[in-house]
Each structure stands twice: as C-alpha cells, then as structure tokens.
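Section: Multi-chain targets

For targets with more than one molecule, the full set of components is provided together so that the structure can be written out for the assembly as a whole rather than chain by chain. Components appear in the order listed by the source. The example entry contains two components.
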Amino acid sequence: MNKSILITDVTLFTDPATPLLGNHWLLTQGNTIHSFGPMDTLPPQDDATLIDGKGKLLMPGLINGHNHCAMTLFRGLADDLELGEWLNDHIFPAEAAHVSPEMVYWCSKLAAAEMILSGTCTVADGYFHEEQTAQALLDTGMRAIPAQGIIDFPAPGVADPKNNIDAAEAFLSAWQDKNERIRPGIFAHSPYTCSPDTLQRAKKLAAKYQAPFFIHVAESRLEPELLMDPQGTSPIRHLAALDLLDANTILIHCVWLDEEDRKIIQESGAGVVVCPQSHFKLASGIARVTELEKLNIPVGLGTDGSASNNSLDLFREMDILSKGQKMCTLEATAMSAQNALASATEVNARILGFSRLGKIAPDYMADLILLDLNQPHLQPCYNGDLLVYSANGADVTDVIINGDVVLRERKFLSFDLKETMQQVRRLATTLNSSLS
Amino acid sequence: MNKSILITDVTLFTDPATPLLGNHWLLTQGNTIHSFGPMDTLPPQDDATLIDGKGKLLMPGLINGHNHCAMTLFRGLADDLELGEWLNDHIFPAEAAHVSPEMVYWCSKLAAAEMILSGTCTVADGYFHEEQTAQALLDTGMRAIPAQGIIDFPAPGVADPKNNIDAAEAFLSAWQDKNERIRPGIFAHSPYTCSPDTLQRAKKLAAKYQAPFFIHVAESRLEPELLMDPQGTSPIRHLAALDLLDANTILIHCVWLDEEDRKIIQESGAGVVVCPQSHFKLASGIARVTELEKLNIPVGLGTDGSASNNSLDLFREMDILSKGQKMCTLEATAMSAQNALASATEVNARILGFSRLGKIAPDYMADLILLDLNQPHLQPCYNGDLLVYSANGADVTDVIINGDVVLRERKFLSFDLKETMQQVRRLATTLNSSLS
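Its structure, encoded as tokens over all components, is:
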C-alpha cells in the first residue's frame, strides 16, 4: 500500500489554467503527489512502482459532486416518462420492494466500478442504508462523501420517519473516523419531502459533526408549490429563512433560480452542484450556470444517479455542461472547456471541503488518472480542450487513488468486478421477474 | 471477401420498435443479411466465418447523416469562440493554408477510423477534394455518400468559383459507378455562400446524376440577413422560391425555422438532418425536432465535422439529441430513446435514399455492429434504451460493412490505422508550427 509511484514520459495536465506539459515525469509519495518535472530532470527512483506514460495523458482524478450510487439497479428501468409517473409508478415502488442493505452494497460497488473506469476518484453520494454505500466505496478504493438520506417518509432502513435524524447520527458517528478516504455527510432529500423542523434538525446534526450538508433544491419549476410549510416564496428563500445556507451546505440542482435566489446563495457562501444530463433527461430544464459564475458562486458538477442520466461518466457530463451553456445563452464563449474541467475537479474539491484535491501540485492528494491519447478520436492533440469535447471515460487506462493503484490497464486491482456484476445481474433478474 | 458470417448466441436489436431478442443467431450471405433466429433453430454452417456473440449486442450499423470528414485536422484547434471569430480567424485561414488532396485523404481516413470504432458504417460527407474523401472511405471499408462542395468563393481544389459546377460534375461522373459502397453527391454549402444561380445549377446537376443534394440551411439566427440575393424572407422560403426542395434534397441543421418553413419542408418531401452537438457548441441554438416530428418530416442525425463537435461518436449524438429535446420542451416523453435510435439508423437510411439499410431484416444490407454488454455501465440491461442513455462508441467491438468484417475486437482488418494516425500527426505538427 502507498508505495511510491513514478510515472514517466507522460503528457501532463496539472489544472485547467495550465497548458499541457509534454514529456514529463511525476512521483507520488505515500498518499500525496511528491513532485513532477520534464524528463531531462528525471530523478532516480529504484524502489518506486514504475508506470510508462508514453502516449498517455496524466490528469487529476475527477470528482463527482452528486450521485445516488445504489440506483444503478434502476438504470434503464423506466425512461422517457413524465417526472411524476417516473417517480410514483416506477422508481418509488421499485425502491420500496428492492432496496435492501445487500442491494445497496452491490449496486454501489457497481457504480464505483463504472466511475473508476471513467476516471472518477471521488464521489459525493446520497441515499439510504448509506453505511453499505460507504463500505462499498471503501472496498473499491474510492474517496467518498457518503451522505445518509433524511426524508419525512418511510425510507429503506428507516421505516418510521421519526427515526430519520437518529439513523443519520448513528451513521455519522460510525463512519466519521473510520478511514481517511471516507468522510460521512448528511443528505436532506428536499424542501418538498422534509418539513422545516426536519431540515433544521438535519442541518444542526451536520454542524455537530462538521459534516457536509447536501440538499436537492430548485430542480423542477413546480417546486415552489410543493414546499412543506413554505417559509419563503421560492425553495431557496425557504431554505434561507430556515437558516440552512452556509459554506457547508451544498445545493444540488438549482435549475430554477431567480436573481434574488442567486444573491442569497452568493451571500451565504453555499456551493452549487448541477447535474445537466439528469436535468435534461427528466425535462427539469437547464441550470443557468453562467449566471451563477458571474456572481462567483462555485458551481460543481455531478452525474446524479443512474436512474435519471443514465451514465456516471463525468467526461460526458463535462461535455454537456459546456455545450448546454453555450446553447442556452447563444454565446459560444460560455462555459469554456477549461471551466467545465474546473467544475469536475478543483471547484468540486472546494465545494466538498477538500483542501488538497482536484489538481496536480506537490502535497496534493495522489488521485490521478491516465488516458490513452493514441486513439483516432483524440487526434490531433492541440490542447486540453479535447478532454471535454472529444474524450470519454473509456479512454481512461489507469487510476490511482490516495497513492494506490486501483485500476491498471483497465483491470481492477482493488476488488472483484466479475462478482459485482454477477450480484447486480441477479438482483436485476429478481426485479424484472417481479414486474412481469 | 463477402464470405458468409454466422454470429451466435447474441442479444439482437433488430430495430427501435422491437424488444431485444436474447440468445439469437444471425447469418449473412454475400453483402446482405440472410436470416436470424433463436439459438435452438441454429442452422448448420460449415463454411461461414463464426463470431461468438456471447455477452454482446448485435444491432444495425449507425448512419452519420452529416460530416466534413477531412476536418479532423482542425479538431480542438479553436474552441469556445464566437462563430465569426472561429470561422474567419481560425477555420478559414487554416483551410486556406492546409487543405490539400493529401490532407483530405489522410484526415478523412482518420475520421473513418473514429466512426468505425464507434459503430458508424455509413456516412454522408460534404467537403472539397471530395475524390480524396471518397477514396479514403472506400479504402477503410465504409459505405458513404461523399458530396463535392460547391461555394461561390475560392475553395480547396477549385481556386476559381466559376469552375465549381464543372468540378462537381467531374466528381460525380468519376465516382457514380465506381463501387457499390460509394454513391457520390452534391453539397451546396449554403444560401449565404452560394448565389441563387449557383444553387439552381447545383441542384440541376444533382438531378442529372440522380445524386443527393445537401445544403446547410437555417443554422444561425442571423442567416436571413446573410442570404445572397434573397428570394424569400427566410432561408427555407429562399430555397423554396428557387425550387430546390424535393425528396432528393437533404436540409442540414434547420435550427431556426418558423411554422411556415416547417409546412414548406413537409410539403416538399425534403429530409432534415440535425447535428445537435455542433449546434450547441457553436451556440447556434437547438433544432426543434419535436415540431418537425409532428408533421412527419423525417429527421436524421449527423455529427457535423470534428472542428465543431468535436466527436464523431453517434452514440453520444443520439443521447444529446434525445436529452436536448426533453430539456427544451420540458417534456420528458419527448424524443424517446427509440426515436433517437431511429434517427441514426432507419430514418437516416430513408433520407439518404438507401432502401435496404438501417435495420436488421432479411435482404437488408449486412451493415452490423457488435457491442460488449459485459461492462459496469451497461448493467443491468432491461431494454434497448441503454444504447442511447448509457452506451458509447467505445463499447463497439466488431463492425461488419456490406458483408465484410472491417473491425474485429477493435482491430482494423481493412487498413493500417497506425500509418493513418502518423500521417495526421505529421500534418498537425506542420499546422501547429505555422501558428507559432
């Protein structure tokens, strides 16, 4: 574990603001990046694990700002449906019947496999039986913020919503110091499924454990009408009135904001995570990210769960983030490739509270990915834009997380992928036969 | 060449309207599909090439309705720029200095490699020195409609625009009966770069050779102001006034249409090809495909060239086509995965004039692709929706075009990919050094 790794002769992408550096080496030490430089300064390293980077690009591991990992079981189960029908007739019944600790473990592990294979090293997750997701992500080698769901309805593992805060506290307390790669969080489902009192107690709990507080908000244009006991005329004003917004709050979605909402977010210091593919596919709309950027509100990127995307590939997500902003503003300069890359790396790191993550620099965490540039769709390679507009997750060959090689030439060193796929297929067969 | 191929034990996707068929076999004969059925009806085939389809999905090869293959050289050269600056300061100067017959050959071959590797068997192309693109596509094993560009400006290979029609006729005449996989066409650049007289002569030429007539139209909201000698108040009405619209006309882009434009297209029988990623990236806007569907106007799908996308992966394009329509209509039922799949297969076939292409049926052309389902992002596999919302081009393992295996386990049998990449890298190095 954590043997030094020396990557040689690689094209280096350190961060979005820096041009590509050809023919470089990089050395890790323990779980951090030690140093890097051009090949003519290659240091002698007799006892490091060597990785030949020739023809490859080395970049920071991507960070997924929002996921519901366990929902891989529902990928493709019900597409092209109106939101209410999708939720009420398909997703909620499937969850009620098929979410178990075992299901959450294996389906989260499958999500981790997909994420690692597409270059994601860190994920912020929100679901139920979250201890299973935490364990699955730990077992696969990922870095993660698993956040236990809180909702004022019966939920998997929390049959009586009266116990939702206690269940969340048990989770925080069990996982807060378990492993350096796992930092537990709180996921309050939304202001239309949690009462003001529940939201405030959830936020207080997060503060007590210095845990990040996630909440779905302003996803649908109908949400203002659905708020539980509204304390404001918009979902954001409702949360602000409840004193829920600060730098430890991460607002997921934010598709439907007005000018006042944006000002409130700006002043609060809260972060925003958008999930453009999910917003598109569920016909929620398009988050006006360029308007948030103007106010210097940090906007990170997430995939959302596999039931509403249906892909956990952040390369795809960066591409749509950028192109969507250009389309809706009719400005081709909007949301550059550089900004999209920042959203899925250093901005997500900042929002999620990681101080040394999301770029390649000495003493930063050694979360690194290699891509095979030697492919037709990545020719020519003039600059790093191709990571957004041309690359996809399948170009990733190797993944290092916290200084350990997790994926080598697309083979997992950290866990048994075949077993995971077999387990999920078995669960899907059960689900499918229950439908027919 | 054209030895029978027997694919066994495969999951079969015959066309978007039919559910997936598990454990099937399929047999080709010559350049067509002979028959298929469940494994318990497997016929004896001693002399066929055998392909084990276990764990794979077999579907019709995708059809790219619009590309500028040679522009792979300009991929990533200039991103995130306003359209005028992009064209006038980057693309046009690069084309003037770097487009040569040699460049068109190698860069088209690179495009073909990318397309085949992502499951595209047929492409409609439009550019200059089109005989080189035709030869490159022929050499790689693709099926294609290469269309010679016509424009009232000096162009690569046609220094004096007075010769643009003659050059196009020479191309049609040279390629019309050369090979069953290559059908030459005419590509009139646009109503803002071709005079009414040029457009009418180009259309007449296409009619003389029964060749498809392609034209860029209604791409930008500024286009009505840019028409050369306008004959109508919109680009579509301009083309209609010039009598250019009929079932052999393919209208590329159609982002900015009004109700009257749509009625005119509907009555003319012309086809439409949209390129959503290019429309997004260049900030052209979003083509309202659902409005065209209501009038039963056939809408096909294209990637556009690599300079404005920057990917030729039609799986990605289908995904954005579908999600974009849901987003802009705020209707999650809009542009289902099935419809997106039809756009890139049977609808494109119809628009481009192929009567037996775009689905799996006896006597249809044997253009077939296999995808590896045995991957985390394609689990579970409930139905064919995953081809749009979860798959990507890198999932393609094998490609058969016109009854010949062109790609086997992602290795080309038809040409030398390494040589092609080296040639394009050499051209890109020349281009890059001319910029610095």
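The longest strand of chain B covers residues 21-29.
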